[in-house]
Design goal:
The complex is a heterodimer. Chain A is about 65% helix and about 10% strand. Chain A is an alpha/beta fold. Chain A is elongated and about 95 Å long. Chain A has 16 helices and five strands. Chain B is α/β, with parallel strands linked by helices. A four-stranded mixed β-sheet of chain B has the order 2-1-3-4, with helices on both faces. In chain B, helix 10 runs antiparallel to helix 14. Chain B is elongated and about 100 Å long. Chain B starts with a helix and ends with a helix. The relative contact order of chain B is 0.11. The chains are: A alpha/beta, B alpha/beta. At the A-B interface, helix 2, helix 4, helix 5, strand 4 and helix 6 of A face helix 2, strand 4, helix 6, helix 7 and strand 5 of B. Strand 5 of chain A pairs parallel with strand 4 of chain B, so a sheet runs across the interface.
């Protein structure tokens, strides 16, 4: 019988096809992840978020305010209410995200130069919706206020150009580097979608090795690999390296072609980075299994470690806002390096010259299994751990 | 007739005895399985602590930005001083050209660039509009948010000062100048959750931790039963395991009893420990609200559980769903922006309505009547998943019986 990496590879392919859970982990779940993110964030920018207005003034000026707010993209004035209590009640029942209060005698006070206050209340329990509405309402109201200012100046006989620059002496010209349309889906899916596929890589690696130990087939596996654990691991994990790398590249194609994400830099470099990240996650999977050669324990630890990566890697919430001690834990996650690599290449268009150090860090993870190789080999031969 | 009634009573008594037998046995199964104990107790104990610790610092301040000041005048320096003074950003470096600044941004030394053109103070002094270029890094929503907040605040306030000054110079008195610059004042109030992102995300994570550990643990328990029982059936070969209702009630109650103390820890003690908003009037309200959430999750887990042939399969199956479920809850991505299909599907998952109710209850202080929609829906889900569990179990038991009779 032939021995070495290729026979192990072939054996693994057979094992894969014989258990539906493998097809689930390598094909069904990654495809579900890709389809979810491609369709869920389809709209890109949230719009028509329901808010309420309490108009105590009810004059042509106050109605003008309400009309202007509802004509914007973000807010939809769904309710016109008559008291603060009902508005608060609507907010606590989850019907609205914000409400605007226009005070009594608003129009009269503006004309008399008494500077009335238009107050808007936004809730921050829905963080993104709250932020969007806050920004929209404050600019809309500031513009309206300036509009009244403009009208007064025009009435005084100033020319329009002059008046316009007078009412807004400093204007901000905002650009977002790499995301000109401010598509919010970018922030959510650019890293989470590939990240979830990396998570499945980790789980699948632990599963594939752990199952050998659980069903005591690890001896046969080692013998087929010429009694070399490195060869055994290489042959066993290669099918998954190929499958998951393919899924990562597929995910990028979907992100860029369907959702229109930035495509700067060299795509080959990014593919290389993705493959390296897949390999690092596999290495971590081997490491965890080596430390805990019991399938269920290794899976639990792997799940715990993997899910935490989404919090700690800094794309959902910046590392800058975390404690210094926590910031150093990011070292544990290849996802963090993948994130900087993605930003560097795809957004800022960096080449290999500026990113080689990230590649080097990712490569360092691949040597992690060397630390536990003896322990894992012993476990594979002696099967001296609980297997129930 | 009398005999019949007696028979009936006897049967009823049997049902209770059987149910309690199942309950006891299931409790024994839970507390003797190391894997399940790790998922139920250790994960629920540690994960909320770790997450709370990661998000410990709460507010995000002083984002590093680069500035390119081509005007280099007293007005531009004043503008930049004001930018630096905001809590949102800090000026990390002064660059001589846009190229230099962009280089710094591309290697993430700064997360935004503020560009002041040559004619900045010239224009302002002539009463014309000046434009400040603001460039934000796309790599995180928070860079954009902080830089925008700082720049629009400074531009507005400095613009207003300049206008007032100009008006006073042209002979208007101060009060009139102020009110004509801003005929009415837009004022914003943030209601609820002053803590920002961390205290927004943690309550969602807490509910999801409960749901995911329950689903994974139940998958492990049923997978293990299938592995160890004779002929791989779901139900052990035991005289008390007859009647699908008795089995379902016994199992569900055992899981419910196990999870009550965990719920108290995760949803009542942890939020206190991390000082999350606690506007709910009594912790009993939380427990009453979360009861149907527990039942629907348990029954959903039991329905799906019949398909697990190995105890380990539940982790790969459920784990990746955690983050899509977080997005489906509608708190981070507004419900109004979801495609209809996903919106509809989101309500099939117990965590969606549980998260919405729980967050409104604790962060916004909503009363039980204000979250009655979510509460009712969770009870309906419990009912629906009870029915699905019934059919799933009957199917598995019949299948098992067939296999046994074939064997015999």
């Amino acid at each position: 019988m032939k021995k070495g990496i290729i026979p192990v590879f072939k054996r693994e392919m057979q094992r894969m096809c014989s258990r539906p859970i493998y097809i689930m982990m390598t094909i069904v779940i990654p495809v579900v992840i890709i389809v979810f993110f491609a369709t869920f964030l389809d709209k890109g920018v949230p719009s028509q978020l329901p808010i309420a207005v309490i108009d105590f003034d009810n004059t042509s000026s106050s109605r003008q305010i309400v009309r202007t707010i509802s004509s914007g993209q973000v807010c939809n004035v769904r309710y016109k209410l008559s008291s603060y209590e009902t508005a608060k009640n609507k907010m606590q029942s989850g019907d609205i995200y914000a409400f605007v209060v226009i005070p009594r005698n608003f129009q009269r006070d503006v004309i008399n130069g008494i500077q009335p206050e238009v107050v808007f209340y936004t809730e921050y329990a829905h963080y993104l919706a709250g932020s969007l509405i806050m920004r929209e309402l404050s600019t809309t109201l500031a513009t309206l206020s300036a509009g009244v200012n403009l009208k007064l100046r025009l009435a005084q006989g100033q020319n329009e150009n002059m008046a316009m620059s007078q009412i807004q002496p400093i204007r901000n010209d905002v650009h977002i580097i790499g995301n000109p349309t401010l598509d919010y889906s970018f922030y959510l899916s650019a890293i989470i979608m590939p990240g979830l596929i990396f998570l499945m890589t980790l789980i699948c690696t632990i599963y594939a090795i752990g199952l050998e130990l659980k069903f005591a087939t690890s001896k046969r596996w080692l013998i087929l690999a010429d009694r070399s654990l490195l060869k055994a691991l290489a042959g066993k994990l290669l099918p998954y390296t190929i499958l998951f790398s393919f899924m990562e590249i597929f995910a990028h194609i979907v992100l860029e072609k369907m959702l229109g994400f930035p495509v700067n830099g060299n795509p080959v470099l990014l593919c290389l980075g993705s493959i390296l990240t897949v390999l690092s996650y596999q290495a971590i999977g081997v490491f965890i299994t080596g430390c805990l050669p019991v399938l269920r324990d290794a899976l639990s630890i792997g799940a715990f470690y993997g899910v935490l990566g989404f919090t700690i890697a800094g794309f959902t919430y910046p590392n800058l806002a975390m404690l210094p001690a926590v910031q150093s834990y990011t070292l544990l996650y290849p996802l963090k390096y993948y994130y900087s690599l993605y930003c560097g290449i795809r957004i800022n268009g960096l080449g290999f010259v500026d990113t080689w150090n990230i590649f080097l860090c990712l490569m360092a993870y691949i040597f992690l299994p060397l630390l536990i190789i003896i322990r894992l080999k012993k476990a594979a031969i002696k099967l001296n751990y609980s297997r129930d | 007739m009398a005999f019949n009634i007696k028979e009936n009573l006897h049967q009823n008594k049997d049902a209770w005895v059987d149910m309690f037998h199942v309950l006891r046995r299931e409790l024994y199964n839970i507390f003797t399985d190391r894997g399940v104990l790790i998922v139920f107790f250790i994960a629920c104990l540690v994960y909320p602590l770790v997450c709370g610790y990661i998000y410990n610092r709460e507010l995000l301040y002083d984002i590093p930005v680069a500035v390119v000041d081509e005007s280099n005048s007293s007005l531009s320096r004043e503008y930049l001083r004001k930018i630096d003074a905001t809590s949102e950003v800090k000026i990390q470096s002064y660059c001589s050209s846009m190229e230099q600044a962009k280089k710094m941004q591309s290697v993430s030394k700064v997360h935004g660039i503020i560009y002041i053109p040559k004619d900045f103070s010239y224009n302002l002094n002539r009463g014309e509009q000046s434009v400040v270029g603001v460039y934000a890094d796309v790599t995180s929503f928070f860079w954009y948010r902080n830089i925008m907040l700082a720049c629009s605040y400074v531009s507005q306030s400095m613009g207003a000062e300049i206008q007032v000054k100009n008006l006073i110079v042209s002979g208007t008195d101060y009060e009139k100048a102020v009110s004509s610059v801003q005929p009415f004042k837009p004022t914003q109030h943030l209601l609820y959750n002053p803590g920002g992102y961390p205290s927004f995300i943690l309550p969602i994570v807490l509910i999801l931790v409960l749901q995911q550990t329950l689903l994974i643990g139940i998958g492990m328990l049923t997978g293990k039963a299938t592995e160890t029982n004779r002929l791989n059936t779901l139900i052990p070969d035991n005289a008390h395991y007859k009647g699908v209702f008795r089995i379902i009630f016994g199992r569900a109650l055992a899981l419910f009893i196990t999870y009550l103390p965990i719920v108290v820890y995760v949803l009542i003690i942890i939020p206190k420990f991390f000082n999350l908003p606690q506007l709910v009037s009594s912790p009993y309200e939380i427990l009453w609200f979360i009861t149907p959430f527990l039942f629907s999750t348990i029954l959903l887990g039991m329905t799906i559980g019949v398909f697990f042939k190995n105890r380990e399969n539940s982790i790969p199956f459920y784990l990746f769903m955690s983050i899509p479920m977080l997005l489906l809850s509608g708190l981070s991505w507004p419900r109004e922006a979801m495609p209809v299909f996903w919106e509809w599907l989101s309500h099939v998952i117990p965590s969606t309505d549980a998260v919405n109710g729980f967050v409104r209850m604790t962060t916004m202080g909503s009363s039980m009547s204000e979250i009655s929609k979510e509460h009712l829906w969770l009870w309906i889900l419990s009912g629906v998943y009870f029915i699905t569990t019934f059919f799933a179990y009957r199917w598995r038991i019949n299948k098992g019986n067939k296999e046994i009779s074939q064997e015999e």
